[in-house]
Specification:
With 590 residues, the chain is α+β, with helices and mostly antiparallel strands. 14% of the residues lie in helices and 32% in strands.
């Protein structure tokens, strides 16, 4: 009788086209991922690039999924990535910045494929399989885990084909074969590296490198998407998995048909340390696939593969070297459900402590960071550790060198560019007028615009009529560059008003405004006129008739001193009062 695998011919299209599509999609997706950038501000990879890397794996999976094509049967279960505590159920996180883990695993399955004959007899089409796995994983940036698994079917046997007229299900024709190579990526979505609980997502892709005739491969690309929730404590670890397996469909002829195809994936595991140093761990593990495609119904025993294990892990030297294993029965009757499955492994799984919490990502742990919400730099001073670096201040006067007019001499803030940060000038009489500018350095006085009075005691304001002028003892003061009278000018202005009241014969008084040569001629002309007008208005408001006052501005045209010095310019900025003696002088230039 001819021994052919039913419907297998239709799976060849997927066998030949899916790998090419996967490679093309993988190249495109990796090109997208390569456009990311590394962010070494805090050491780990930026979230955006890690997301791109994971998206690349998902793109490969989406492009390579068989989407309902017929395929063969890979009876081996998928082990967890190297470095995970579980044997079959993956964890959600990636505990390491650049951490390599390796695992060698053997898996023995007793009767992984059993059919029911028309006479309702049990027929072990595959009586046993012995698998060897070489697995490797790399944890990156405490967020992304990349993994690969190379399976090899070292031994298998069966009891010959079973006649399911008009077709027959063949026994394995090859005892040894490379299995379907698996590549995976896992991405931690939620939970910081130091938090005990995490949520992650993952994707796996199997390439059709195994022999269908040995029940070592599907003959087509298949993939898996899953989410995992779990946590790690000092002496315990747990994880729960929920996902979807996307694979081609197949139905083995049997009195009770055995179906395989796309399935829901569920898993749960836990480990508990027996000793205080967590060298020996033990715990249960449950991993299941529930076929929902190809006519299968959820929890149908003939399309369910549910593996129960009691597992243990031992670190004999307390370092990264590990060994362990597990055993248990399968609770379903689907393809791959074994009467007994025994697993053993040894590996190298280093443990890297998570980085301490660092809220502002400045490389200084929160426990010693004085400015936890403000990125800074490490400092030997605990008060400034983790805070932004202070600007250079050579003389330690709290004024940064960039703004200090005397960066090597401790001084005071003056807000004046020439003296800001400089030591105060000598002032023997303590009147805040430096001796070099003080006209009376040994007698406390007040600041005055007139150089001869600057730093001298204040004198009573005085004004008197002298010939054709009213002479004043001090200058009338204005706000710098404006025609706004200062309050200090009120006494002298009051004296001028008093002189006019005492001398009614002064029928017309010319108020003259003068400036220094600072600024343009036009502006100085306008300013001198405005200042003369401001003085005339003040006198009017204090009892002087408007008709007796005439306003005139001379700008910078009549200086009294050389404008080359500050003292000269101060003398030139003035208001003068000229008595006009007759009608012929009213309003006309002299």
């Amino acid at each position: 009788m001819q021994t052919t695998f039913p419907n297998r011919s239709r799976g060849k299209t997927a066998e030949h086209s899916a790998p090419g599509a996967a490679l093309r999609a993988g190249s495109a997706a990796l090109a997208v991922a390569s456009r990311g950038h590394f962010d070494y501000t805090d050491g780990p990879l930026s979230r955006s690039l890690a997301t791109r890397c994971f998206a690349a794996a998902v793109a490969v999976l989406a492009a390579s999924s068989p989407a309902g094509a017929e395929s063969g049967l890979d009876l081996e279960l998928a082990p967890a990535p190297a470095g995970d505590r579980g044997l079959l159920v993956p964890e959600p996180d990636a505990p390491g910045a650049r951490l390599l883990s390796v695992r060698l695993l053997s898996s023995y399955a007793r009767a992984p494929l059993v059919l029911t004959t028309p006479q309702l007899h049990r027929h072990e089409l595959v009586s046993h399989q012995l698998w060897l796995h070489a697995a490797v994983s790399v944890a990156l940036f405490h967020r992304l885990l990349l993994s690969a698994d190379l399976p090899y079917l070292a031994d298998s046997a069966g009891y010959g084909p079973v006649d399911m007229s008009p077709t027959a299900a063949p026994a394995p024709t090859s005892q040894r074969s490379l299995g379907d190579v698996r590549m995976g990526a896992r991405f931690r979505l939620f939970g910081s590296p130091s938090s005990p609980e995490h949520i992650g997502i993952g994707a796996d892709v199997w390439l059709p490198t195994g022999k269908e005739s040995a029940y070592a491969g599907d003959g087509a690309v298949r993939g898996q998407l899953y989410a995992a929730v779990g946590g790690r404590r000092t002496r315990s670890v747990w994880s729960v998995q929920l996902g979807a397996l996307l694979r081609g469909s197949d139905t083995l002829p049997s009195a009770l048909p055995t179906r395989s195809g796309s399935a829901i994936v569920l898993g749960a595991m836990s480990r508990f340390a027996v000793d205080p140093h967590a060298r020996f761990e033990i715990g249960p593990e449950l991993s299941g696939r529930f076929v929902i495609g190809n006519g299968g119904s959820l929890f149908d025993p003939r399309s369910t593969q549910l593996q129960l294990l009691v597992a243990a892990r031992f670190r004999p030297f307390g370092n990264a070297f590990e060994l362990g294993g597990g055993f248990g029965p399968s609770l379903g009757q689907g393809a791959g459900s074994a009467d007994l499955r025994v697993l053993g492994f040894l590996g190298w799984a280093p443990v890297e402590p998570p980085p301490p919490p660092d809220r502002d990502n400045d490389g200084v742990p929160d426990s010693s960071d004085t400015c936890t919400s403000l990125p800074g730099v490490a400092a030997s001073d605990p008060v400034m550790n983790g805070c932004p670096a202070l600007p250079l201040d050579t003389d330690s006067d709290s004024i940064p060198d960039a703004f200090d007019a005397c960066p090597r001499q401790a001084g005071k803030a003056t807000q004046q560019p020439r003296t800001h940060g400089c030591p105060p000038a000598p002032d023997r009489d303590g009147d805040n007028v430096p001796d070099e500018q003080d006209a009376c350095p040994d007698t406390a006085g007040v600041a005055a615009e007139a150089p001869t009075q600057h730093g001298c005691p204040a004198q009573a304001a005085a004004a008197e009529l002298v010939g054709q002028r009213i002479e004043i003892s001090e200058q009338i003061q204005f706000e710098t560059g404006t025609a706004i009278l200062r309050a200090t000018s009120a006494p002298i202005l009051a004296e001028i008003a008093q002189v006019l009241r005492e001398h009614p014969e002064v029928q017309k008084l010319e108020v003259q405004g003068h400036t220094d040569d600072t600024g343009t001629r036009e502006r100085n002309q306008l300013l001198s006129e405005a200042r003369a007008r401001a003085v005339a208005e003040w006198l009017q408001q204090h009892g002087v008739e408007k008709a007796r006052l005439l306003v005139r501005g001379f700008g910078q045209t009549q200086p009294l001193s050389d404008n080359a010095s500050e003292a000269g310019r101060a003398r030139n900025r003035r208001v003068e009062f000229r008595v006009l003696s007759g009608p012929q002088d009213s309003g006309e230039k002299p």
